[in-house]
Amino acid sequence: MIIRLATVHLRLQEPAAISPVVGIEGTLELPRDNGGRVIIPETSIAGSLRSHLADDARRLMGYVERSGDTNNAGRTVAVSSRVRIMGCRADAGTVIKRTSTAVDPASGAARSRTLRTNELLPPGTTLAVYLRIDSNNRQADEQDWNVLYGKLHTWSPSLGGGASRGWGATTVEAVQTGTLDLTRDEDLLIWLTYGGTSLVDHVVSDVELTTSPLSGHSAVATWRKTATFSLASGLHIGSGQHKEGDSGRTPAEPMRVDHNTDQFVIPGSTWKGIFRSRMAEILGRLGAGCRRFIDAEPAPAKDAGCSPTTPCEFCLAFGVTYTEPVQLRPEVPSVVGRRGLLRFSDSVIDAAKDTCVTHVAIDRFSGGGHDRRLFTKRIVTEGRLALTITAPHAPAPGVTALLDAVIRDIDAGLVGLGHGTTRGLGSLRLTDETNVGSWDTIRRSLRTSVAEVS
Ligand SMILES: [Zn+2]
Questions:
Q1: Dist. CA 442 → ligand 1 center (Å)
Q2: Three-state helix/strand/coil letters over the chain
């Protein structure tokens, strides 16, 4: 028997929340082993590999389905996976924490009781995935291995949750392979001496790294929209943390910074929240869109053209969670949601200038300042940034038109980012309009697509 082993070296391009578990304080924490090291469940890897293998998944990774055979009708048939994932090791540095809230489309403000904290693996973390496939020296086995090996090079798994907020993108940096022929004594000795991931390490260790042709590029994105902005006012985006204040002062609130560069940052989740809520509002006013996407109180009754099996273009673009599990295909288990098409990346603020501002709560009766109510915030006053939205393929024209509309609304100061938008904070100005559709184009494509969805 021939045993083929491979180590796939992945690098996180974005932060990742893989299989989080609810911690003591409600924080979504990364799972850890007894030594406190972050572990990556192999199921997360298997799911991604399976979808990447597409038509070859059934043959290489097995299946469970209802028998179509008339003699055994209704019986479940299970075929095990030929590809075994023997483990995944993460070389994680310090984990990072992100807090976020949900935006209410009606008020534009954060919804109460939606503040959540996620623990994330930092971008740059390397992951080693260990694979094994056994073969009986048949030609078909050889072909299967070649298919798997080829596809590993074009794999760029999106791991864990929050893909649409710019989390979880990875690239394959290298693939190492090795072979054990159990008819040979020396290979048999290795086989009997090592096990698990150390067997793979031992066999592939001498093999030179074959750099993936896609190295450094994420195959996730083939469609991209960018817009560059400069700050038109102060901007404050909270980090969920407070610095202890002096006596008599409330704690100071720092601005959120990027994990890698320590520069101020607008997180992808902020962008996503703003675009989603503003698009829902526009659609609601136009009398279009579906109940799932608009998600406001009271919910509009429309659902025409949008069902779990055939979602509307907006649900496809932003993803959707179903209140009841939905059976999409007869042979596979039901699902509770759909992952969104669009990814909003973090935007680092370049050439930033910042300052600390204070404000005090005023007593309405006396007009004087309240005792112990001095608030201190760090705000960015100047800077440039680029918004980047990507997708594996181009979204529907109605979606791109609305994305452009929201970019223009941000430019016009109708939509603000972060904290204190009612106090003059959070305004941005477009500095480059080349990639942003004009109002004429937006109107024209909305007229067509809204007529379709309403
Ligand atoms: Zn919908």
A1: 20
A2: CEEEEEEEEEEECCCEECCCEECCCCCEECCECCCCCECCCHHHHHHHHHHHHHHHHHHHHCEEEECCCCCCCCCEEEECCCEEEEEEEEECCCCEEEEECCECCCCCCECCCCCEEEEEECCCCEEEEEEEEEECCCHHHHHHHHHHHHHHHCCCCECCECHHHCCCEEEEEEEEEEEEECCCHHHHHHHHHCCHHHHHHHHHCCCCCEECCCCCCCCCCCEEEEEEEEECCCECCECCCCECCCCCCCCEECECECCCCCCEEECHHHHHHHHHHHHHHHHHHCCCCCHHHHCCCCCCCCCCCCCCCCCCHHHHHHCEEEEEEECCCCCCCCEEEECCCCEECCEECEEEEEEEEEEEEECCCCCCEEEEEEEEEEEEEEEEEEEEEEECCCCCHHHHHHHHHHHHHHHCCCCCCCCCHHHCCCCEEEEECCCCCCHHHHHHHHHHHHHHHC
